[in-house]
Fold this sequence. Notes:
five-stranded antiparallel β-sheet
Amino acid sequence: MLIVASNPTKFIQGYSEQFERSFLENLRRSHTTKRVSAHVVYNEYIRDKNHVHMNATRWTTLSGFVQYLGKTGKCVVDETEKGWFIQYINNDPVAMARQEELKRKRQALLDHEERNRRFIQAQVKEAQEKFGLDDDGDENKPAHQPRVEKVSMSLKLESKSKLASVESKKSIQSAFGQDVDDKSGKDGAPSSSFDHETSWKGGKRSAVDAIMEEETRKRQRRDEDDERANRLDHWIQPGLVVKVMDKDVGDGAYYKQKGLVVRVHDTYVAEVRMLESRDVLRLDQEDLETVIPLVGRPVRVVNGIGRGALATLVSIDERAFCAAIQLTSGPKKYSFVFSFLLFLSFLFCVFSCRGRTLPQVEYEDICKVDT
């Protein structure tokens, strides 16, 4: 008592700094930058038996302390009918740099989507002009019907059976788009116009190309819608192996250490069990980073196309900071059908894309899973 009485300002200042530091640390970890009641944060803080009491600080009331935080720019505070509300301002340079990087990536993604949209619109317009398609993708009637030519025949002294066999052979070859051999041409057998055959074949192939382009456009639109719907500001999920990137956690003891997400609180806060020490920490997702496993190991898509699906890591592009993955389960498998018409025969080809490969997925959108 005598020591404290001899220099009370020094001790009060020390307890005040310790109280402020512990209070803000609890606010940052438990509520991050969300707006919350000051009484809720204070009640969480005093649960610690070793906490510094407010009567040992230079603030006499919680309202005075909250107003101090607002004046110093450490928090955003406002008074309502239900009392004082507080919102933490994260001034950490690492966190601010990461937020700027995320903002830049989102803007780049929007610009990329806009370029893709313009490119697709240009391709659709070009296809409509080239193949004569209307807005619904149906092929219009051809501008001109294939002309019917008069075939002149030069009959030689040949048996009827031989002439019939030549006619039959030519009909079969013409039906499957084959050219008539030179021998039959020399014998004077009837031949169809080359321009007519080319026009007919081009019309059929135009229909096939139109169908394939329409399927490609539908898939691109589906991917864009999927990307927008599944690109969220939170990504942590139970079962992910993550890395701690906050140097202040445990005074740097857990920096760049890996842990397993065992539970998620309020969407943005993860309960992480460290793999080495087995300690359980409660961290904000801004303090965590995804872990990229070895090629061939399973990962989970945590953001963007295929969000929530399991996949296998196919390859890693370290220069572009992205990876190629192959979806193995989850709701994001795709299949598409291309109908291919070949003259008088109808061939139905189905390309199954279970295990679809996504060639360029950013590191932040995939994470190693606990096996």
